[in-house]
Amino acid sequence: MTDPYAILGVARGASDKDIKSAYRKLAKELHPDRNQDNPKATERFSKVTEAYDLLSDKDKRARFDRGEIDLNGNPTGPFGGGFGGGAGQRGFRHDGFEGFGGAQENPDLSDLFEGLFGGRARGGGGPFGGMGGGGRRAAPKGASVQYRLKVSLTDAATRAAQRITLADGKTIDLKLPPGVEDGTQMRLAGKGEPGPGGNGDAIVTIEIQPHPFFKRDGDNLRLDLPVTLDEAARGAKVKVPTAEGAVMLTVAAGTSSGKTLRLKEKGMTRKDGTRGDQLVTLQIELPAADSAAMAELGRRLEGWQDERNPRSRLGV
Prior knowledge:
By secondary structure, the chain is of the alpha/beta class. Helices cover about 25% and strands about 20% of the residues. It has 8 helices and 12 strands.
């Protein structure tokens, strides 16, 4: 579904208040913390957030309503996207070459003048100088077109293939480069606007989206994992999510809250193709104060007290 109004279940004329209310209701219902065994709910949560991001921005909403951009903010018209941008950001050419900075490269003005005045750039004698020997310069290519591609943090970690629809309606699958970061640019040769010297390029800027429970830490991914008191006290094997899917993790008996365990090569993909790690910090989660489980725990602990002072090393 690509209509943000339909995703949120509101009418096109819905007020900002109605849109926010619909988003809060769906976000609460679909939040991954409440649907850990339902990957489809997590996918819907991402779509709902994406739809709200667009409709809560008055400018983007107006452009979408006019048919100028799609749900991802990409241009829908054949000349959408504009020029330039990206100076100072890393770029990747989709045909395998690296090192292009952005869509706005240093223009060769002699090409422009030749196109305007129809003549040859003559060495020293022409009004704008130019090539020696009277040789004709190559005709200029068409303009570059910019796109923005939203990528989930887990897809960035695993370099999962991404599908993008270009302004001409064609779709292509992109392979994310190693070491991809928020703001990384990919250059698609010949996918821009037509020109006398051939098509320009498409410049795709990657926007890595925040994840509901993973956090990036350099090449690593961090995760706070809730465990029950009995799992921490007696030890247990617990299921933990990773970018590729759930794995089993061993929690040793007597583990304290705040202990961090390492899952090797489950983090972000580095520039050399290797993977960082996933750092899992255990958080002991007690039952709700008014629950039957907490009442039972209180009965079992009645009359028992831990005589240690775990704060002694803090001088208190």
